[in-house]
Amino acid sequence: MTKTLTLLALTTALALPQLAAAQEITEFRIGVLGGENAQERMTNNECLAKHTSETLGVPVRIFTPADYDGVIQGLLGGTLDAAILGASGYAKAYLTNPDAVEPVLVKTNLDGSSEYFSVGFARKDHHITSLADMKGKVLGFGDPNSTSGYLIPAVEMPKQGYSMEPGAYFKDIKFTGGHEQTIVAVNNGDVDAGVTWADGLGNWEDGYNSGALRKAVDAGLVDMNDMVEIWRSEPIPEGPLVVRKALPEDVKAKFTAMMADLINTDKDCTYGVAGGETAGFTPVKHDNYLSIIEARKLEEAKGS
């Protein structure tokens, strides 16, 4: 018996270094959702790559797929290690594989909330002031996996009497490819109105404090004085920063702690990563997204 225990202990001791080696990572890969041009996304997240590399001691690569699903599939397939997802994107990842990623942090607004809105907007000179003026006109959505750019409007607008079936109320529904593309399409008159995301805090002329409109203003793509808000959703939970569940626990802990403290160590970096003014990132759990997961399930059931 003693000999057997000794052999077991020796075998375990020999296996521990191999297990530790298997748990090490050689690089860390962060995905950034579509919605603005790839170079802009890379620029806004270069500082994040630097801070992450210093924290984890490995090279960090930033990936900017063309659409939301590129990031989601990267996380599901294990080719990405972390990303800030929209709530609907997280719902898709969870419904596809509940063991793929885990939510760890969420962006907070300056007022301490972790909510935002889907905002409908149009050019002021098109004389559209509400969805009541959109009958027979073209509405632009961003991405099928966007919470504010598709899921929430597709759920809430029909409840308010505005059918999503092309031709039933709106002349057509067009997917532009992302939030930035929607803003440009509205500004150029390619669609009559569009929906995007904003925290709804601060001034309209600034594109609010954070969100796609704020990013577009910062980039010089739009003058908000030329635009008007025509619709606003119920509050939406901010999407989570997720990490791949299979990562070593110490890697997840170090990365999460670094992100939670980023507002204190590099406020400018946090501004770029969060898409505008923010109070930083705070802990979040899966249960925060149960309502969005249910909405996503219902919406997918309609299309099946």
UniProtKB/TrEMBL annotation:
Signal found in the keyword field: yes
Entry-linked InterPro entries: PhnD, Phosphnate-bd
Origin: domain of life: Bacteria
GO annotation (BP), single: organic phosphonate transport
UniProt entry keywords in alphabetical sequence: Signal
GO cellular component, one term: ATP-binding cassette (ABC) transporter complex
Cited Pfam families: Phosphonate-bd (PF12974)
Residues spanning the signal sequence: 1-22
Family membership noted in the UniProt record: Belongs to the phosphate/phosphite/phosphonate binding protein family.
Name under which the protein is recorded: Phosphonate ABC transporter substrate-binding protein
Originating species: Paracoccus shanxieyensis
